Amino acid sequence: MEHRGILLPFILKTPMGGRILLGLLAAAAIGVPLLNLGLPVESPFHVPTYIVALVGKYLCFALLAISVDLIWGYCGILSLGHGAFFALGGYAMGMHLMREIGDRGVYKNPLLPDFMVFLNWKELPWYWHGFDMFPFAMLMVVFVPGLLALVFGFLAFRSRVTGVYLSIITQAMTFALLLAFFRNDMGFGGNNGLTDFKDLLGFNLQADSTRAALFVASCIALAGGYLLSLFIVRSKFGRVLVAIRDAESRTRFLGYRVEHYKLFVFVVSAMMAGVAGALYVPQVGIINPSEFAPANSIEIVVWVALGGRGTLHGAALGAILVNWAKTYLTGAAPEFWLFFLGGLFIIVTIFLPKGIAGLLSRTPGSLPDFSKLKMIFAKIFPKGVL
């Protein structure tokens, strides 16, 4: 037989870093729930539930980083508004979780969420209907971010908006959504957002087993997002994307409808970001307009740059490492966290243009030369300090 399956040969042809990522995800999806649920709390090998939720959140961020790397690393679309797609997916999941509460809320209203009762809403807005059904909510998780990306991308790419101008208008888009969702009359909870979730598909969200199941779902989603992105960039379609990234005008001159390629990959990337947001919300227990903040979208780009732009697995690595460092440093030295992140970004940009993934793929004899770093410090600090 010529065809012995598609998935296994495809996985075997993935880069070494990708295979390591998939292997770690498989091990984590099996091992972490077993160590959390199967061992007593007194055991030194027991994984606490808060660690399960924390790492699950990191995995959602890793999927979000891959979605940005797909368009930036391979198509040259630097989006500074991907936090909007992430937040929209999160709001879609949050709306379902709010409808699941029913009459168990503070005001015991079987139809209206508590914040609507508090604000004297008389009936459920039309755009909240259907979110009591899980399949409909999951459809909206990908449909709403995808529709926004389709409309925005069609207008931007048809007008041939590129480079820094595209980055600016993507940031303007997420800032506009931030202002809109802060309004109480939008029907999304205003600045407080959506919170106080009870259960998902009938399972208590505070239960250890539910936390473990969400962790496994995050592992599967990250692996699926990575494989989907790898399939796209390894195909003939992906080679055209790289050509657009490197020489858009020449690619258009050769007869390719550049705007169609960019629009397709932009929509796929937005849908992946929406899935990441949907998995993020039940694990952290809240979604509010702060997720639309432009600074969040800029931070996503930093994750990708630090991990390794144009590698996919490097983007996931960067997201996990930076957020782990953020968790540690905001507790140990909160006043230095942003300085650390900025300094790390500058060092990687200057000395490791291919990010951490590029450094790990180097041979021992080809490590970067950091002698320039001492020269920079010598110009900043007085003589004798170094």
Mean pLDDT over all positions: 88
Task: Estimate what percentage of residues fall within beta strands.
Answer: under 5%
Intertermini distance: 66 Å
Low-confidence stretches: none
Q: What order do the SSEs take from the amino end to the carboxyl end, as H and E?
A: HHHHHHHEEEHHHHEHHHHH
Arrangement of strands in the largest sheet: 1-4
User: Level of helix content?
Assistant: 55-70%
Domain module tally: 1
Shape: globular
Q: Please state the CA-atom Rg, rounded to the nearest Å.
A: 22 Å
- Main β sheet profile: 2 strands, antiparallel
In DSSP terms (H or I, runs of 4 or more residues), the helix count works out at 16
Helix/strand/pairing category: mainly alpha
> How many β-strand runs?
4
Can you put this structure into words, describing what you see?
This protein has 386 residues and is an all-alpha fold. It has one domain (13-334). Helix content is 67%, strand content 2%. It is built from 16 helices and 4 strands. It has helices at residues 7-12, 16-37, 49-75, 82-101, 114-118, 134-158, 163-181, 208-234, 236-246, 248-253, 258-284, 294-307, 313-332, 337-351, 355-360, 371-380, and strands at 194-195, 199-200, 203-204, 286-287. The strands form 2 sheets. A two-stranded antiparallel sheet has the order 1-4. A two-stranded antiparallel sheet has the order 2-3. Helix 2 (16-37) packs antiparallel against helix 8 and helix 3 packs parallel to helix 8 (208-234). It is globular. The model has no long low-confidence stretch (mean pLDDT 88).
